[in-house]
């Protein structure tokens, strides 16, 4: 239960600092603002409630795929490195807490902050959506919200894992920024470079399976796959566009929508394991 104790303290600190309130307001504004922009730009909500909800989620997926990782990394990167710098980590470990408890407690506490802010923010936003859009499918919207919470958990694990392996918040921040740049910009560029190097063209008649696999294994692509699975809509997946246009012969296992949950689990557990290993060997 020691990890739970650390998590509770971390969550209470976030409430006292009004971090939770700020994130909740941000997600609520994001939800309503995203719906308003999508409705104004393309009239996505002119048909029935079920279709309008899918259109809304499709419009929200890309900005949520950027906003949630950035917020989760900001919340997570200083979790342990920050306490090292201030010296409070030695006091924390002086209590009956093992290093593993501290890392796991920080993940739980920071995930709680992100999850509660998403849940409350999206719930508040739903009120505005119903008033603005007219009709929203609560089941589909809840499924999207829960997958988004899981996505936030993955990036909290990445942030805390980085924090556990570094000695300063500066280095942890650099690591967090590097992750954002890698997944948001460099990964797509690298996939194009590899495609040209292996296939000799940027636009083959059919795209090879390895290309779809490579573009499906990032947390962001897995987030889209998971949404596509729970909503039974292939348009959210990285392979969906290629499949609808007949540009692939078959969808590899890794690019299947349900496999997105497996990839998200790997991206959560791997950095957490590395963080536990590095923190356990560190000289404080």
From TrEMBL:
The chain crosses the membrane at residues 54-80, 107-133, 139-162, 174-198, 258-279. It comes from Natrinema pellirubrum (strain DSM 15624 / CIP 106293 / JCM 10476 / NCIMB 786 / 157). One of its GO terms (molecular function) is ABC-type transporter activity. Pfam families: ABC2_membrane_2 (PF12679). GO terms for cellular component: plasma membrane. The keyword Cytoplasm does not apply. Keywords: Membrane, Transmembrane, Transmembrane helix. This is ABC-2 type transporter.
């Amino acid at each position: 239960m020691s990890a739970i104790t650390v998590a509770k303290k971390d969550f209470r600190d976030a409430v006292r600092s009004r971090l939770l309130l700020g994130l909740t307001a941000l997600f609520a504004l994001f939800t309503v603002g995203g719906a308003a922009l999508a409705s104004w730009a393309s009239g996505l909500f002119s048909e029935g409630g079920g279709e309008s909800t899918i259109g809304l989620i499709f419009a929200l997926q890309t900005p949520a795929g950027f906003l949630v990782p950035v917020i989760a990394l900001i919340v997570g990167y200083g979790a342990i490195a920050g306490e090292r710098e201030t010296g409070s980590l030695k006091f924390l470990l002086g209590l009956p807490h093992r290093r593993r408890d501290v890392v796991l407690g920080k993940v739980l506490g920071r995930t709680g902050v992100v999850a509660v802010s998403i849940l409350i923010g999206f719930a508040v936003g739903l009120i505005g959506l119903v008033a603005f859009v007219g009709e929203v499918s609560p089941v589909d919207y809840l499924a999207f919200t829960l997958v988004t919470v899981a996505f936030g958990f993955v990036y909290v694990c990445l942030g805390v894992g980085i924090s556990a392996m570094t000695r300063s918040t500066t280095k942890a921040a650099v690591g967090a920024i590097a992750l954002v740049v890698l997944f948001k910009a460099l990964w797509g560029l690298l996939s194009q470079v590899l495609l040209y190097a292996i296939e000799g063209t940027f636009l083959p008649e059919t795209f090879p399976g390895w290309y779809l696999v490579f573009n499906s294994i990032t947390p962001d692509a897995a987030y889209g796959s998971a949404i596509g699975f729970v909503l039974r809509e292939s348009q959210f997946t990285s392979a969906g566009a290629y499949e609808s246009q007949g540009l692939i012969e078959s969808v590899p296992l890794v690019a299947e929508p349900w496999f997105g949950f497996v990839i998200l689990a790997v991206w959560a557990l791997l950095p957490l394991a590395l963080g536990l290993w590095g923190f356990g060997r560190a000289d404080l």
